Amino acid sequence: MAEAHQARVQSAIEEMVQNLESEHIRKMQGRMFKCSAECCDRSTDSMTQVHQCIERCHTPLAKAQGLVTSELEKFQDRLTRCTMHCNDKAKDLFDSGAKEPAIRSLMERCVGSCVDDHINLIPSMTRRLKENLDSIQQ
């Protein structure tokens, strides 16, 4: 993917992730640390009980991070499939005897379209992630 297109996607995704991190993940981290500290304050619990308590505190954040990672992987896979389709179209054009400028132009338009389509998917992906993050039990 051309650098400019890649930079556009990366910037849009980074903005989304930063937003999710500041609005959701960071609050979950705070709750996790407070919960873990409370586990450590239980002076009558055994070491095993304290460790189990801490693990329970970490579970919501681990689920949240897994959810975000999974969604980003699906997004990347879809974008990769789209750009591979562009590569196939370019190869077909090359095999038909087209010249390099025509092939470059096709790739630029095709990859640009992939990027535009996938950047347009980010708001719905963000909404879905926020809803799922809000539904994780604390």
Question: Could you explain the architecture of this structure?
Answer:
There is one protein chain. This protein has 138 residues and is mostly helical. It has one domain. Helix content is 89%, strand content 0%. The protein has 3 helices and no strands. Helix 1 (3-40) runs parallel beside helix 3 (100-135) and helix 2 (47-95) packs antiparallel against helix 3 (100-135). The longest helix is centred in the middle third of the chain and has 49 residues, at 47-95.
Beta content: under 5%
Number of domains: 1
Extract low-pLDDT stretches.
Answer: none
Biggest pleated sheet: none
Sequence of secondary-structure elements: HHH
Number of strands: 0
Number of helices: 3
Give the mean pLDDT.
94
Q: What is the end-to-end distance?
A: 40 Å
InterPro entries: DUF842_euk (IPR008560)
Organism: Parambassis ranga (Indian glassy fish)
Protein name: Protein FAM136A
Pfam family, one: DUF842
Q: Would you spell out the secondary-structure blueprint of this structure?
A:
Layout: H1 3-40, H2 47-95, H3 100-135
Helix pairs in contact: 1-2, 1-3, 2-3
In short:
The chain is mainly alpha-helical and 138 residues long.
Keywords:
about 140 residues, mainly alpha, 3 helices, about 90% helix
